[in-house]
Amino acid sequence: MTTLLILGVLVLVAIAIWQMTKIFELSQISADDSQVANDRDNKYNGYLLMVFLVFIYAITIFSFWKYTKILLPEAASEHGGEYDYLMLVSFIIIFIVQTITQALLHYFGFKYKGEKGKKALYFADNNMLEAIWTIIPVIVLAGLILWGLYTWTSIMDFNDEDDPLVVELYAQQFNWTARYAGNDNVLGSANVRMIDIDKANILGIDESDLNASDDIIVKELHLPVGRKVNFKMRSQDVLHSAYMPHFRAQMNCVPGMTTQFSFTPTITTADMRNNPDVVDKVKRTNAIRAERAAAGKDNSDPWEFDYVLLCNKICGKSHYNMQMKIIVEEEAEYNKWLASQQTFSQTMASVQ
Predict the structure, then answer these.
(1) What is the rounded distance in angstroms from the CA atom of residue 163 to the CA atom of residue 182?
(2) Are residues 139 and 278 in the same domain?
(3) pTM to 2 decimals?
(4) What's the domain range around 145?
(5) How many CA atoms lie within 13 A of 346 on its CB side?
(6) Position 33 pLDDT exceeds 60
(7) Which long-range contacts (CB under 8 A, 24 or more apart) does 79-85 make?
(8) Rg of the chain in Å (alpha carbons)
């Protein structure tokens, strides 16, 4: 009760101080002060508009120069190139429109600033101008939308053509688990109600399903380069999002349902590590890590590029740390790695 009274007194004191401040401000206003902008005010505002226009262009140029180097390297999937091209065209159009419209906005604000004795001329309408600034954006936006829909349809063409590898991505707070379909390339049925931690059945796989016996459960995702991969995604608890930025791939993982996405990796991890852009980024990152270590803020262990699977939906307090390493390798290396993994039936037998 005492705490509540103290808080109430503090609130009342704060209100009293605020009211006294307002009274003081009002007492400082003289009868000669005017709240109407004069020619001097309009002149300063006009020049400030032009200064702000220069600032906009300067910060844009600086951002291109400073931050372009930290963008993602070239796409490592078949569909990624088309995705990046669509994004590039969209940005170019936005940049051109922004440059023109902001220049006109600030210039006319400066040119037609208020001046004593100058009377504004009012136009009720201008059909030609209305047509221009309506039709042109409609055509441009319609073109981008249609192109985007075509690209989206092409990317989301999930099918069993080209003998795809079938992999399940299982999301839970705050980690990923991958399940390969095994030799039959068919995933066994699963349900979260069948999860049994004591028996190491962490994905709720139906032990009676014969298709599940050769499934392989791993914590590191390996993909063969040049082979299509059909991903099937599940979530155990909340909404997650499987985001693989270097492959330009993302799909929500929704509790109670299975979502799907497919792509074909085109660049191995080894080849990407030799990419000049990636090498430069690794060097700069390691230099920053060394500087932070020298200042006692972080360790200086060298970092090497890896593909990564991230969660792109805020799913809880450790969302930032929900990731899994992805290795893209040649088919022979992938087959060798897969053969060294334990199947679901072997795992179940070892815990019984």
Answers:
(1) 13
(2) no
(3) 0.76
(4) 40-114+127-155
(5) 10
(6) no
(7) 79/154, 79/155, 79/248, 79/263, 79/264, 80/247, 80/248, 80/263, 80/266, 82/151, 82/154, 82/155, 83/151, 83/155, 83/248, 84/248
(8) 30
